[in-house]
Amino acid sequence: MATDRSAVDDRLSAVLRDERGRLIAALVRILGDWDVAEELVQDAAVAALEHWSTDGIPHNPGAWLMTAARRKGVDRLRRQSRYRERMVELTREATEMDAGVATDGPMGTDDRLRLLFTCCHPSLNREAQIALTLRTIGGLETPAVARAFLVPEATVAQRLVRAKRKIRDAGIPYRIPEPAELPSRLDEVLRVLYLIFNEGYLASTGAAAERRDLARDAEWLTSLLLRLMPDEPEVIGLLALMRLHLARWEARFAADGSLVLIPDQDRTLWDRSAIDDAVELLGRARRIRRPGTFQLQAAIVAAHAVAPSWQATDWDAIVTLYDELHRIEPTPVVALNRALALAERDGPAAALAEVEPLADRLGSYHLFHAARAELLRRSGRGEDARAADERALELTDNPAERQLLEARIRQAGSERSAGPT
Questions:
Q1: Which of 341, 247, 238, 217 is nearest to 298 (CA)?
Q2: Which residues pair with 253 in a beta bridge?
Q3: What is the pLDDT of residues 363-374, one digit of tens each?
Q4: What backbone phi and psi angles, to 5 degrees, belong to 259?
Q5: What tens digit of pLDDT does each residue of 14-53 get?
Q6: Are the beta carbons of 244 and 301 closer than 8 angstroms?
Q7: Assigned architecture for domain 318-421
């Protein structure tokens, strides 16, 4: 029975979104060749467009794609000298592969975990980790990865080729880390997902202030990781953090495209249902009683999200959470954010005393200067605040941030020209 081509396209895109990483992972495990595995999945997708349009969409599209990819793999193996040996292996694994795709059983879970940890192996540089994760697990085509990070398509293609070559030549194991390795290796995976999300949430370069699709991709990948590792509290914490941020998306930008900070956001635009779900998710992480960086960050954002107003925010709780976060992750950025919370509880002078010593380590970080400007402004030091805003403006390319800073600088200029009243 013929099926409308657009319906086939939509269904195939959705299936590949969910299954592509698992299909490639299973084929890499069997065939031992990353590039061939990707090509087989692509060939199977092309075959699906043809067959599903005429025969109808199968009951289990993922299993159909795996069968098609495996048949095409057999055709390739026939041309290899190790045909018999590899065919025996492929035949032995075939039932297991089909079962994994059909039921999301242990094979599918383990293979995708292996692939994710391989993509984020510490011997690969961060750019390669991100590109591999988005391309292989997230299913983004190379041009889409290039657009997301505003680099030439050829650059992303080179990163992918070099990364896969390094995995092959260095013999990077295609496996889930041993229990003793898992904490540090999981942290690497989570940080890659966090970086992808942050780049989508507030872009560091380019004409767009944000890239919602990229942020959603990171949230989806993290939700996939949680399905695979449901008892890891930091995975739960990161997903809760992302969802809390996404719940405020509609209130983050003004009509002119400028950034709207939390104190000035219209809280009626926040997605309260999504916030409640994320807070419930965070509670699930807390019950495991293994606190970590992402859980604490999520708890801080949750404290903002549940407050009825900026003035009614529980600043004692937020400062306490920052204290705990700084003990786990004593970075200058955490110290800066803690100081901003301290300003709301104890006043700008107390916060400035914490911020000024961070200048040497955060001098090239635009948000340091923007935060310092706000504290100076609240302390009555208008000229110093304007200079700090001007320095922040020099250090950021994000158009929404630039509009906000330019407005502050103009406001400071008009106040200065008006003189005392």
A1: 238
A2: 259
A3: 999 999 999 999
A4: -75, 135
A5: 888 777 877 887 788 777 778 888 888 888 999 998 889 8
A6: yes
A7: Alpha Horseshoe (1.25)
